[in-house]
Every structure is written in C-alpha cells, then in structure tokens.
Specification:
The structure holds two protein chains of two kinds. By secondary structure, chain A is mostly beta strands. Chain A has strands at residues 5-7, 10-13, 19-24, 31-37, 44-50, 53-56, 65-68, 75-79, 88-95, 106-107, 111-115. Chain A is globular, with a radius of gyration of 13 Å. The relative contact order of chain B is 0.34. Classes of the chains: A mainly beta, B mainly beta.
Chain lengths: 116, 113
Amino acid sequence: GAGVSQSPRYKVAKRGQDVALRCDPISGHVSLFWYQQALGQGPEFLTYFQNEAQLDKSGLPSDRFFAERPEGSVSTLKIQRTQQEDSAVYLCASSYSQPGSGNTIYFGEGSWLTVV
Amino acid sequence: KQEVTQIPAALSVPEGENLVLNCSFTDSAIYNLQWFRQDPGKGLTSLLLIQSSQREQTSGRLNASLDKSSGRSTLYIAASQPGDSATYLCGVGLTGGGNKLTFGTGTQLKVEL
C-alpha cells in the first residue's frame, strides 16, 4: 500500500476488556515497530519485528501486552485485561532495512485507545 | 539509558521568521537521529535522517545538524509558514538499534499570520 495502515483508528474499551490493534506495513518493509504515545509525550518503543521474528520486546509494559507478525507482513498488538493506564495512541512504523542500517522509518496514523 | 530533551517545549513565531529547534541526548553512541513532524491526530512524518557519520542534512527550507560529541542536534526552519505549525519530535537511534528510537517530548510550533 501507499503507507502504513492501522485499524481501528479509535477504540473505546471497558476496563478488563481485551483489544487487538492491527498494522499493515508498507509492502516489502522488513522491519516493523510498535510505539506507545501518551498525551503530550513522545512515542515510547514497545517492540520490534524483523520479518516474522520478534527481536526486541523490551518495551512491552507488562505481560498483558502481546504482539505478533506471523507471516512477516501484518502485525497485531494485543492488550489483555485493559486498564486505564493503557489509554494512549499506539503507533506502528515500518522501514525497509534491517536494524543497524537506519533507513527512513514510516509511521501510521495510530490507533487511539481509551479505556473507561 | 538514553534520554532525549527538546527545548523549547512550545514556540510561537510570526510568519517568515527563521527558527531553531533544539534536541539534546545523553548517550553519544548513536547510530542515527531523525526529525519528525506530527500534526494533531496524526502519525509522525519523517523530515530528515542524519546518520552518525554525518554533520547535517538539508531538505528544502529545513536543515538539521548533528554534534555527537556534545550530544546535540538542531533543526533550522527558514522562512517559516503557517503550514509549518505542528509538533516537532527528535528521535535518536543507538548503535545496533537502528530504528529503535528514543524520542523527546517534542516542540509544539505555531506560526502565525
């Protein structure tokens, strides 16, 4: 596609509900990243995939957060038993190259999660 | 742990003014540094990417410089326009981390007519 596509754009979840956020990266991009952005803050790294391999999940805040990219293309970020502090924008990004070569990174418009 | 600071947090200037946004980082072992803009309700758009071996990058009215030894980068915007109004974010990638970026909290820029 022309850019990184994320769905849903907006999600309101009741506390305790599970949510799944989807990311369609730019076709052919090897690297895929998830970031979390709280209101008024910069994005914070959650996890990174190189093709289907999850190489870094050091930023996931708890074991309620889980991400996958089973075929090396579309990725899903799942949050179990949502809590109010999970309310944020979840940004997906992709780039062509492998880590360490630092090509331009392209972000989606984000999934805005509100937990009530 | 890398920490990134952006100053000022907010800036309001009249149209046509040249301006400088600042980004500082604590760990100089960086691989690259990227400047992004973010419009309200939108994702981030990459403006300029500077590799650690480079001193500056230019694109149109934008010029970004990098001084690794002092842990600083600046984004220079020439002849500002109302369409430049947005939040500008600096993202720093550490050696071996590629696009695993640590971000500052951004500078919110408003260019007034």
